[in-house]
Amino acid sequence: MLTNYLKENTADFHNEIESKLESKKLFEGTFSDENYYKMLRVNHLFLKEYEDKIKKLLTVKDFGILHQTNFDKCRLIEKDLSELNLTELEPQNASELEDRAEAFGALYVIEGSMLGGNVIAKTLKKYPSLKDKSFNYFGHYGEKLGQSWKTFLRYINEEFTTEKEQSQVIAGAKKAYEDLIRFA
Ligand code: HEM
User: Fold this and answer.
1) Which residues of 86-123 are buried (b: 16+ CB within 10 A; e: fewer)?
2) Whose CA is nearest to atom 40 of ligand 1?
3) 3-class SS at 89?
């Protein structure tokens, strides 16, 4: 199944981004406000480079089935950045996405990151310096997160069934992760 291959083929990238963003500190209680700011700024640059490219390759059917998915999360991070008076990172070159299958691979990285985001938001809300902040981005899906992630996984498993299509989805996910890791 595509989603199993995706998880297996990107596990090392996940470890690498977690390590670059120092997320282990979250659970050790040593994660700082600066660590959170870096996460926001890196994700912002990543979404700014990727969201429009992805949307251009998706179909009306994709948007219909994935109606729970927010394809404009860049705006959510911008609200967080402005609330915290943070500047954006300098724009950087990012890979091009070749087709709809690659776009879905990149979207897998974006939507999957919301699973970690949920943990991050819940943990950081307990930090005295951040407890009044909005977490527009990391907290976005709230209770709907599990449902929207399941719908996404089911849909890509149905849509990309041949070996060729599946390797294109994986190629898109790798491009996205490589850029994200480079930005961090
Ligand atoms: C921007 C950086 C990140 C990206 C792009 C990312 C991406 C992903 C992806 C694609 C998945 C789905 C894996 C799958 O089941 O196929 C995932 C799952 C997950 N990530 Fe991350 N992640 C990021 C940061 C983090 C951080 C910092 C944490 C730790 C707080 C984290 C914790 C998790 C957890 C707990 C899951 C769920 C695992 C499961 O239920 O199977 N992630 N992430």
Assistant:
1) beebeeeebbebeebbbbbbbbbbbbbbbebbbebbeb
2) 115
3) coil
Which whole number is the average pLDDT over 154-179? 98
Closest ligand 1 atom, residue 10 Cα = 10
Question: pLDDT (tens digit, 9 = 90+) per residue, 11-64?
Answer: 999 999 999 999 999 989 899 999 999 999 999 999 999 999 999 999 999 999
- Residue owning tokens 């660590």: 35
Residues with CB under 6 A from ligand 1: 3, 6-7, 14, 17-18, 21, 23, 26, 43, 108-109, 112-113, 115-116, 119-120, 180
Among candidates 66, 76, 61, 89, which has minimal Cα distance to 134? 76
Domains of the chain: 2-183 (1.20.910.10)
